[in-house]
Design a protein that fits this description.
alpha+beta, N-terminal domain of MutM-like DNA repair proteins, Helicase, Ruva Protein, domain 3, four-stranded antiparallel beta sheet, elongated, disordered C terminus, binds zinc ion
Length: about 325
């Protein structure tokens, strides 16, 4: 499933439509009337988590979620908008100079911005790729997931929006964190480090994605990781590498189902973690006392909640 970096890349790619007027908008799989949008200006295009949002004049908004199979094609418009579409096309938007096709996306919704149709969007957590991502807010919100395995919690878009299955496995591996331990077993410093690492990696990908003409689901081309320079096929550290040797310790990578989704991890680099104390005593006894997630953020100045623990492997 395309993750937040892909959606931000797509939003950036189709940004030239901003300021142009709608020539036609077709939602072939929907009964929604779209005629009234003709002539309206495209005012904004943005991503929130895994959603693409196109905002038109008079507060009309289009929400697209690509889920597993959705694809987008964006190009200069050279001919009049087509009269008929392939069955896979769920959205065609033409402006004076551009056209956007979305195929196979199950969620395409046009409604007024404030309407209940967008309640799901309002429930989303802060967008990890967005310019204004607030890591402190994200750490505070972790309170709601203390008992949830971190590998599942990272995918819950209500905590933090944008992280998907690939980045989840990659980020946890990079910091040597056990995907099966509950969020409450990690220190604030660890969660901060993890979220900021994922943000950095995902933001580094946005540009590359924004330059692709056809946005394919799944891996969306090579992701930028430390190992990309070695010419690896997927460019991932652990994702889709089950049974292959860990890039750090050569132990075979494992795959396990977690909340119905695959988690890839190295059993050696990401040792089991049962609780915060467990980790603090066994791995980092020389480190300062661990500040648990949700400890009083108002009181602790930022320097005190900086990484409470170092990852085990580095
Ligand atoms: Zn390893």
């Amino acid at each position: 499933m395309p993750e937040g970096d892909t959606l931000h890349g797509l939003a950036r790619r189709i940004a030239p439509m901003i300021g142009e007027r709608v020539l036609s908008l077709n939602l072939p799989m929907s009964t929604q009337n779209t005629k009234h949008l003709i002539g309206y200006q495209v005012q904004n295009i943005q991503a929130h988590g895994k959603n693409l949002l196109v905002v038109f004049e008079k507060d009309w908004m289009l929400r697209v979620h690509l889920r597993m199979k959705g694809r987008a094609l964006f190009r200069k418009r050279t001919s009049p908008p087509p009269l008929r579409f392939a069955p896979s096309v769920v959205l065609h938007l033409a402006t004076s100079s551009w056209e956007l096709f979305i195929r196979d996306a199950p969620v395409v919704l046009l409604a007024r911005r404030g309407s209940f149709h967008f309640d799901e969007l309002r429930a989303l957590g802060p967008d990890i790729v967005a310019d204004d991502f607030d890591v402190d807010l994200a750490i505070e919100r972790a309170q709601g997931w203390l008992n949830v395995p971190i590998g599942e919690a990272l995918l819950d878009q209500r905590w933090v929006a944008g992280i998907g299955n690939v980045w989840k496995s990659e980020g946890l591996f990079e910091l040597g964190l056990d995907p099966f331990a509950p969020v409450g077993a990690f220190g604030q410093g660890e969660i901060r480090k993890l979220l900021l690492l994922l943000r950095e990696r995902m933001r580094a990908n946005v540009d590359g994605i924004a330059h692709r003409r056809l946005l394919i689901p799944q891996l969306n081309g090579p992701r930028i990781t430390r190992f990309e320079a070695q010419g690896t096929k997927t460019g991932t550290l652990v994702y889709m590498r089950a049974h292959k040797p860990c890039r750090r310790c050569r132990t075979p990578i494992l795959r396990a189902l977690q909340g119905g989704r695959s988690t890839y991890y190295c059993p050696r680099c990401q040792p089991p973690r049962r609780s915060l104390e467990d980790n603090a005593s066994s791995k980092c006894s020389s480190e300062p006392a661990v500040t648990p997630i949700g400890a009083d953020l108002e009181i602790a100045p930022p320097e005190q909640i900086e990484p409470a623990l170092h990852s085990q492997s580095r």
